[in-house]
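Q: What does the assembly look like in three dimensions?
Context provided by user:
Components: two
Sequences:
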Amino acid sequence: MKKYVIIVAGGSGSRMNSDVPKQFMLIEGKPVLMHTITRFTAAFPEITVILVLAKQLNDEWATLCKKHDFKIPHQLTDGGETRYHSVKNGLELVPDAVVVGIHDAARPLVSDATIKNTFAAAEERGNATPSVLISDSLRYVKGVENTAVDRNHYHIVQTPQCFHSDLIKKAFLKAYKPEFTDDASVLEAFGEKINLVEGNRENIKITTTMDLVIAEVLVKLI
Amino acid sequence: MKKYVIIVAGGSGSRMNSDVPKQFMLIEGKPVLMHTITRFTAAFPEITVILVLAKQLNDEWATLCKKHDFKIPHQLTDGGETRYHSVKNGLELVPDAVVVGIHDAARPLVSDATIKNTFAAAEERGNATPSVLISDSLRYVKGVENTAVDRNHYHIVQTPQCFHSDLIKKAFLKAYKPEFTDDASVLEAFGEKINLVEGNRENIKITTTMDLVIAEVLVKLI
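A: Here is the predicted structure of the complete assembly.
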């Protein structure tokens, strides 16, 4: 099946208290977003890349592409009010009967194996989401109460979350719910079972300045 | 109240496929375990340090202390069959009516604030455990089934887990259960409510070679 990837960079970086949105911050001198896109075109040279970007960042992105001589072809569409709405905008550019991966722009450290395994599993089974085990103890917190839970039952979910495009597009026709923190949840609410595949631990989401410093090191390992 | 810390280094490093146990691996040229001990004596110069170490590593530790001119006084006791048994051995050296922190040797990046806040909360409330929020989506996995869960209800638990010594020693008189992945769980099984305080995100447990590489960078930040 033909492959598409939607790179979701709808946000504008307020969580890092920085003027530079996180997807434009530099790792090894190159914007995070360029690392991220390159992971997918390296894994699948024929993949179609759709970039969902906050509208007010379009000019800055164009300038960065020129400056870094970044020539990987990609379609651009506008970010929405929430991540859900950004993904929905991206899905409008995806045809039926392809496999589409939906990936956080702020995850530049996804490995070649994670990308290939997740797309392959989704092609075969309709959907696939990479995940990794938790190595720390966990507690369930509700109000002022909290209790130990068995960490072996919990997986940390990563991206790219991959789907048959027909399926995920239908799921996104449902009304938005704030519980939708990722795309697998949207498909699950539509009644489908989610297939987990193994992700790579380096595939962290860059949310804080500390993550950026970590990413600068990890990029040399993958 | 007088302060004690039990540094738990019972393991012998098999998870890293390395001949060097993880607590002896180097960060900035110094064994992880020396970083860890120094965090506590820097926070509380009068603290009593108890090191629980696998018996077969005693000679190597003595050699390392000499080589690195490491002179922080500490009592040494043997590791047990599991983490639970190692902690129990350490607790035998702790008197009643003190506050005792129980800390993973492989967490050299605990901050001064985390140590001070956790000991202070435990002194006031009987127990305290540092924790941080999860920034990724989570799924609950049971057999082949899995479902999305609300990550806002889950906290990742760190160490030092701190206690009135009378209380935790009584809790450790209970029989061992494999569910005890940390010391707060032991106290909870004894019927006490656990108090969570804010940890620091850098306070990772070094389990893999990747963690060690990350730690080498983070140690410069805290």
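Follow-up: The mean pLDDT of chain B is 93.
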